[in-house]
Amino acid sequence: MTIIISGGTVVEASGSFRGDVIVEGSTISAIAAPDSALVEAAGRGDAEIIDATGCYVIPGGVDVHVHLQLPMSPEAVSSDTFTTGTRAAALGGTTTVIDFAGQLKGTSVRAALDERLAEAEGACCIDYGFHLSMGDVHEQSLADMRSLIDEGLTSFKLFMAYPGAWYSDDGQILRAMQVAAETGAMIMMHAENGIAIDVLREQAAARGNIGAVWHGRTRPPELEGEATHRAVQLAAVAGAPLYIVHLSAAEALEQVMHARDRGRNVFAETCPQYLHLSLEEHLDQPGLDGIRHICSPPLRLRADRHQETLWSGLRNDDLSVVSTDHCPFCDKEKLLGIDDFRNVPNGLGTIEHRMDLLYQGVVTGELTLPRWVELCATTPARLFGLQGRKGVLSPGADADVVIYDPSVEHVLGVETHHMQLDHSAWEGMAITGKTRTVLSRGQVVVRDHEFVGRSGHGRYLQRSLPDPLR
Ligand code: URP
Ligand code: ZN
Ligand code: ZN
Questions:
Q1: DSSP three-state, residue 410
Q2: How many domains does the chain have?
Q3: What pLDDT, in 10s, does the model give residues 397-414?
Q4: Is the pTM of this model over 0.85?
Q5: Same domain, residue pair 15 and 86
Q6: Ligand 1 pocket: which of 167, 168, 215, 246 to mutate (most atoms <8 Å of CB)?
Q7: Does 466 map to a domain?
Q8: Smallest Cα–Cα separation from 59: which of 434, 401, 444, 436?
Q9: Is residue 443 within 8 Å of residue 400, measured between CB atoms?
């Protein structure tokens, strides 16, 4: 089956131009000048022509940080399933997600991955992969890390936060980084100083400060900056590349910038919530409004100008990726912490809105169109071993293609979103631009804003080693 996406403006990380995208089966066969002989030849026979006039034609988005049906605790499981979350992602222009298998203390890395693979099997609407969250670094898990890498799981998240649960100490972190240095795997770091944060949390609660805003006040940006600094230095000692996840604070970005200025293979992602939402306007609210916006790291003070710093970091390539850290909880679960912020399951729902929320940076002039594509598709694919297959519109790449209409105006909210979530952290936000049509491996899965794909279409991605060249 041949599909020709014609009349649009092709946008890639390297630039934009008028061109037609020719899809043969599940891959891209060519990008050709409109009306060229190549397009004419492809159009003979029963080719389907999709008109993209007035639209951008971009590689499908690659969201490398999502948590679908994640059991945060026995009472709180993130509300999007592999099916509902990947369907919402597709509607928003994302065609690849990477979730996490989580190794809890006392369990094996191998079992964690097998369990997650079984849960996702046959359930996803778009292609998916897993990182491994390591909660118990010891001889066996380090050995298992090597076998997982051989099987195409090439990235491992460690935590400087959450003592007593996911936390690793500096020695454990160094040892995992040494394996990454030897093998070429990527270490992803949740960089917040959890030991110091726990002291602040206990002190706040002891004084009766248990509202949502205290979640933010007890996770100050200095403790994200400190942990980021430590992670960067440990990675230098090990000789490993490093990827800081969900970077929220100017203090942390400063550390990443410093490392990159010295030519180090240090990368960081930020998330739309840190670019658009703030502690004053969203977290410091009474009742449900506040706790709906609890995530870690927390939303930061707008007055401290973190958002401006992050936008500038995206522009200047100090930040390499925008992912969502999609981890939605319905009000029933969020309400578990209505009397104490420490009991609120952390996370927001954003998987459907990432391309739109970052496109607002193009609208306001913060980013160029190619940079938008680079941040949302090309670089995340490259850093997580999907280079050549995902995040590009090159001949031979998977035909994951998004037709994005920049003229549509819409408003985000619970009435219109497709995430399995009974509220929206983004309620009322006006957006310019919307995904119109989406192809996943050559199959139309969204047509004119309607989902027409199916669960089970998505395939598990065994990934190569990351390409950490800067
Ligand atoms: O609040 C967040 N970020 N929830 C998901 C877990 C994590 O640390 O990424
Ligand atoms: Zn994290
Ligand atoms: Zn996360």
A1: strand
A2: 2
A3: 999 999 999 999 999 999
A4: yes
A5: no
A6: 246
A7: no
A8: 401
A9: no
